[in-house]
Amino acid sequence: MENIFSYNYLSYIYQKSSLIQMIPAPKLIDLSHIIFDGLITYKGLPAPIICDYLSREQSKGLYDGGAEFQIGKIEMVSNTGTYIDCPFHRYAHGHDLAEVPLEQFANLDAITIDASGSTSIGIEFFKYKEVRDKAVMVATGWSKYWNTDAYFENHPYLTAEAAEYLKEQQVKLVGIDSHNIDNTQGKTRPVHTILLGANILIVEHLCNLDKLPASNYKFNAVPPKFKGVGTFPVRAYAMV
Ligand SMILES: [Zn+2]
Predict the structure, then answer these.
(1) In CATH terms, is domain 83-239 a member of 3.50.30.50?
(2) Cα-to-centroid distance, 176 and ligand 1 (Å)
(3) What separation in Å is there between the alpha carbon of 60 and the centre of ligand 1?
């Protein structure tokens, strides 16, 4: 007979109780662009090559019973699509993808900052918002130019002062739906330098940020666990 204190029994009771049925499942909002063969994410960096390593046709001879498989092969720079920057991207001794703990990538309390129509996003956008300990999503609307020439020039970015303020507020992560979180007209990258130097992760090339609520939701962007890599594509999403 099942012990009434066993985990299985308690979880059965929990699932059957009317209480759990009253809590709706969270809605998921996809915040990542599609990555496809030949896509240019960043002007000057090569596009990914996505092809078969083993095609379905080739695989037929390897299996019986009508089984066939495809094994893909991808050649790409790590800054492709919607991606996350870890400290190693900027600092040789910073944490890489394998060293950043899962807690920094997932289940983060998040807040949305509406910066649509602005190019230089300063401290005033964050000053009276509850950004402390949050994943801060900066919604600029720039993702509408994704995969066009207009995406790369005169894009929205954060100022160094805004980055300093977010560092002081000990935010967990900063996301933006633009080509770069830094101004790319010059050669300095103060926002990357300040945030990654403070172990604050950055997600760039997000989309659908206009679909997010103002606050009270979770943000997730988990990359694979590569050693010696600082940046990688993520399937970023919000749980609302
Ligand atoms: Zn970056």
Answers:
(1) yes
(2) 10
(3) 42
* Ligand 1: centre distance to CA 182 (Å): 8
Stretch 190-212: mean pLDDT: 98
Residue extents of the structural domains in the chain: 83-239
Cβ-proximal residues to 1 (8 Å cutoff; 6+ apart), any chain: none
Ligand 1 center to 55 CA (angstroms) = 34
Q: What is the CA(217)–ligand 1 centre distance, in A?
A: 24
Joined tokens for residue 230? 């600082």
Pairwise CA distance, residues 121 & 27, whole Å: 29
- pLDDT over 70, % of the chain: 91
Name the residue among 163, 99, 179 with its Cα closest to residue 131.
163
Instruction: Record the pTM.
Output: 0.90
pLDDT tens-place string over residues 216-229: 999 999 999 999 99
Distance 200 CA to ligand 1 centre (A): 12
